[in-house]
TrEMBL record:
Classification via CDD domains: HDAC_AcuC_like
Histone deacetylase domain boundaries: 21-318
Pathway: Ketone degradation; acetoin degradation
Keywords of this entry: Acetoin catabolism
Region forming the signal peptide: none
Protein name: Acetoin utilization protein AcuC
Domain of life: Bacteria
Start and end residues of each stretch annotated as Disordered: 345-365
PANTHER family in alphabetical order: HISTONE DEACETYLASE HDAC1, HISTONE DEACETYLASE HDAC1-RELATED
UniProt keyword ATP-binding, yes or no: no
InterPro entries: AcuC, HDACs, His_deacetylse_dom, His_deacetylse_dom_sf, Ureohydrolase_dom_sf
Any one GO BP annotation for this protein: acetoin catabolic process
Organism: Nakamurella panacisegetis
């Protein structure tokens, strides 16, 4: 297989919401350093994209919003003003060159989508992407431009008939769902912590799409505290069956690493091992359901030293078919870099949390806490795709 399109430009590190903000570019810096030291992309060239143009951004975002982002992207001191459109608050502070860096990240995801649509590559990955909360007319959840929605739109505009989007971030993929809620060509699937306990308070099983798109929005809210076994149980009980039934031409995925037990902004209990298992499952799904065509994006993740670099190095390795053994020791030079970046932090020593990732497949009669969510989403959505909600084989 030809190598994937690996999208990165160090200028993307300029997407910096401030030193105390949870979304810190150090997570990308340490990921590329770790991936490089482990050799997972040896011989694979990084592709530096062009920023998305205003016309490209306008396929998802309103022109008024794009102009507001530009106006808020001035020199230091601009941050003292309010610009509307969700810009300038604690979640979405404005910063110098905000439009340029957000457009560059969006341009990367668009470029990956177009390369797949043209048949130039089967896979592409943009770990700076996955900014899935941005809405058509406002910033939201640390996200300025919704590169995931823009990539899906680029695929459709390039003639791709159907796209499946699967989001494993701990937060609901609300911005992408909203962008395609009435478009039957796009399946959006989000597995996330329950809206009862986590922002943005959406992503209920009853959110299923509108009109001709009924059944193309699929939401799997899992309870706070859900760990690897239960999360994987829910994933495998819903995601592969519904995606295969949809028969997409391309799979787009968002791999937010904030489902980890160490993440400070959420309440799930996954390990790096469980996250790695999800990446491998998504790779298998791309092969079996989408002809191998797969665009993988980053997303959330706020344990920026202990978790994200290991998780997304596994992601890069998975996309490149160069899987890293979980017992692989972390390189001493990387540990020195991480220690210097965040002094006093207790660092892991391997690419694993030494957690088992075995799970019991879902059965209609099981009574684990996560099974209520599984049963509800299957009962609501599976019949709309010709699937039996009570048959574990579907």
């Amino acid at each position: 297989m030809a190598p994937p399109l690996v999208i990165w430009d160090p200028v993307m590190l300029g997407y910096d919401l401030g030193g105390s903000h949870p979304l810190h570019p150090l997570r990308w810096e340490l990921t590329w350093d770790l991936a490089g030291q482990l050799g997972v992309l040896d011989g694979v060239e990084r592709f530096a994209p062009q920023p998305a143009t205003d016309a490209e951004l306008a396929t998802v975002h309103s022109p008024r919003y794009i102009e507001a982002v530009k106006a808020a992207s001035g020199p230091p001191g601009t941050a003292g003003h309010r610009f509307g459109h969700g810009l300038g608050n604690d979640d979405n502070p404005v910063f110098e060159h905000m439009h340029a860096t957000a457009a560059l990240i969006a341009g990367g995801s668009i470029a990956g989508a177009r390369a797949i649509a043209r048949g130039e590559v089967a896979r592409a990955v943009n770990i700076a992407g996955g900014l899935h909360h941005a809405m058509a007319d406002h910033a939201s959840g640390f996200c300025v431009y919704n590169d995931a929605a823009l990539a899906v739109r680029a695929l459709l505009d390039a003639g791709v008939a159907k796209v499946a989007y699967v989001d494993v971030d701990v937060h609901h993929g609300d911005g992408v769902q909203a962008a395609f809620y009435d478009d039957p060509r796009v399946l959006t699937v989000s597995i996330h912590e329950s809206p009862l306990s986590l922002w943005p308070g959406t992503g209920w099983p009853a959110e299923m799409g509108r009109g001709a798109a009924a059944g193309t929005a699929v939401n799997i809210p899992v309870p706070a505290g859900t760990g690897d076994a239960a999360w994987l149980r829910a994933f495998h009980a819903v995601v592969p069956g519904i995606v295969r039934a949809f028969r997409p031409d391309v799979l787009v995925t968002q791999q937010g690493a904030d489902s980890h037990a160490d993440d400070p902004l959420a309440d799930l209990n996954l390990s790096v091992d469980g996250q790695r298992a999800s990446y491998r499952a998504l790779r298998d799904l791309a092969e079996t359901a989408a002809g191998g065509r797969w665009l993988a994006l980053g997303g959330g993740g706020y344990s920026v030293v202990r978790v994200v670099p290991r998780a997304w190095t596994h992601l890069l390795a998975t996309v490149a078919d160069r899987d890293v053994d979980p017992v692989t020791p972390l390189p001493p030079a990387w540990l020195e870099h991480a220690a210097a970046a965040r002094p006093g932090l207790h660092l892991p020593t391997t690419m694993s949390d030494d957690r088992p990732v075995d799970y019991e497949p879902w059965d209609a009669d099981d009574g684990a806490p996560v099974d209520k969510a599984i049963a509800e989403v299957r009962s609501r959505v599976f019949p709309l795709h010709g699937l039996d909600p009570f048959d574990p084989r579907d």
